[in-house]
Amino acid sequence: MTQPETETVETDVLILGGGMAGCGAAFEAAQWAKAKGLRVIIVEKAVIERSGAVAMGLSAINCYMGMRWNQNKPEDFVHYVRNDLMGLSREDLVYDIARHVDSSVHMFEDWGLPIFKNPDGTYKREGRWQIMIHGESYKPIVAEAARSAVGENNVYERIFAARLLLDSKVPNRIAGAIGFSVRDNKIYVFKAKAVISSAGGATGVFRPHAHAEGLGRIWYAPWNTGSVYSLMIQAGARMTQMEHRLVVARFKDGYGPVGMWFLLFKALFKNAKGELVEDKWANLLNEWAPYGTNKPIPTPLRNHQMLTDFRAGGGPFYLRTDEALQRMFMEAQNDPKKIREIESEAWEDFLDMTMSQALIWASDNIDPAKTPTEVVLTEPYLMGSHASGVGAWVSGPEDVAPKEYFWGYNRMTTVNGLFAAGDGVGGSAHKFSSGSYTEGRLAGKAAVAYVLDQGTSPNIDQDQVEAIKVELWKPFENYEKGKGSSTRDDINPNYIYPKMALHRLQKIMDEYVAGLGSQFITTEAMLLKGLERLQVFKEDLQHLAARDLHDLLRCWEVWDRVWCSDAHIRHMLFRQETRWPGYYYRADYPKMDEQNWKVFTNSRYDAKTGEWHLQKIPFLTNFA
Ligand code: SFD
Ligand code: AMP
């Protein structure tokens, strides 16, 4: 590949990642920016109509209060999230999303998203916080609003954001980002007064169930590679709860979500002997009181019961789709029209968001009304929007944040002018699609306020930009220098392709860092070994090779995952307790320790020294 062309783009607000949070940020920032003549840009590595976790669509919106019908108060949601996260959530951030999320959902409906309705006009609920949608086109609907809000010229697609740029004259202030096109031989330098990091969570860090050609068949979006974290970590932003991974129960092989079956269809979760796992292991929950003894059972503890039963010989496990559907058919008095409706809902749940699950049913001759469906736990994901809270440590909203958690602008990280949203924000889980969008809106509004208050033009160090450009293109150089020294292009003593590198990373993480293969168990000694292996692996990664732009993208995605792994291991080492059994077990500290560890764990990477600094941050809340 020849040297790339460089294009410099100047903007006031730069949004990295046009997923749910990015589209929310764009929509909101544009409203405030327009009046002041400011520019807002989205940079997306794919095309926003079909990018990110909602690319395929969704069949539910899992964060909706229903305040217009007095169904829930934001405070109720704070209590729910507190319990599911085993006591540790940023309640100011959770509350802030809860009080605004309904307005986002109402806009989605206005823009054409079909929402299931009850005869009285209320939204049909799957569970207390979840509503059902015909959501195959959810993302195009949301993207269209974002695109028209910022204007077509301000949507930069098929560009991978690879580095954040800091101001060369003002310490700890953001100045923009560098990305490269995944279609043309081109590097972009974006100069910005404020940046919103919303490039999605991290998958593929751990070895998944599927392998070989099925490697990408996982639950969360395979193209979310942890950029949102690696960009912010390298820029020196303080991160929080990076140990708090997500492991969820999913239908086997297709990774279809289970929420609708549990909550709406009331399907029971049974082991191979037909025993109810939740009842059989109810006593386990006492050890994790007060959270374990509250309802609903926290997500990690449901996993913990399943893993315990597995060790006692209970596997395989099934969601009794057969029993649930037969019961519902009976309740419908075997009316063929009603049965058809129930069957359609059952299949649409997957056709709207995880088509592969419906395909697996069809190709394996499974009729869920006759056959129970096998359920397994996923490999761990790093994300801040489902039942887990990894991400950046951000300022809360002024009116409800403890004063220690507020530093001027809502959702601003500890780097001035750098904001985060969605999976990128730590300690505030259960936002899902609607909450991530809402958080994007909050960050978008605050970023415009920041630009208006503080936004002088950024200073960019051209030498630094040149050095990053050389570094980004190095995999091409590695390939050119190394090629030809073996008969097979993919086996070469001089370089390593990103796919092989990914396998190596996943092996380290699986074996030492409590992945599937080690039954989510680890210790200090195992983690230290994993860290050592990761450091050696990083040396080999200097030899990553790219033949084309697609390879180049994959190379830098591997690096994203390595940064996430580094942070994850260090945080797991730091927290000396087992707070989320079922997500991971520190076998050397097998209990939850409320006295010493009911704290947030924050880290900061110092790019100058290459050192990580970890600290405990007191848990504070203004909510009862
Ligand atoms: O039940 C770069 N989610 C669900 N949410 C719901 O509300 N209801 C459901 O039914 C949900 N289910 C579900 C969900 C996700 C998936 C994959 C399935 C099922 C199968 C979760 C939500 O989707 C999730 O919480 C939000 O989407 C998170 O929002 P955000 O904005 O943080 O992430 P994103 O939408 O994936 O967007 C990230 C964007 O960044 C891009 N990107 N762009 C430029 N440069 C880089 N370096 C980049 N790296 C990434 C991505 O392309 C993307 O556009 S259920 O199972 O939970
Ligand atoms: P899922 O489909 O598993 O991603 O879950 C969708 C929604 O349902 C999320 O809000 C989950 O927290 C919730 N959920 C899933 N399973 C259960 C369960 N067994 N009990 C309570 N809530 C659940």
Radius of gyration: 24 Å
Largest sheet: 7 strands, mixed
The CATH level-2 architecture of the largest domain is identified as: 3-Layer(bba) Sandwich
Strand content range: 15-25%
- Number of strand elements: 19
Helix content: 25-40%
In CATH, the homologous superfamily of the largest domain goes by the name FAD/NAD(P)-binding domain
Structurally, the number of domains stands at 3
Distance between the termini: 60 Å
CATH topology of the largest domain: FAD/NAD(P)-binding domain
How large is the count of helical segments? Answer: 17
Which hetero ligands occur in this complex? ligand SFD, adenosine monophosphate
Q: What form results from the Cα inertia axes? A: globular
Structural category is alpha/beta
The average pLDDT is: 96
At the first level of CATH, what is the class of the largest domain?
Alpha Beta
> Which spans of ≥5 residues are poorly predicted at pLDDT below 50?
none
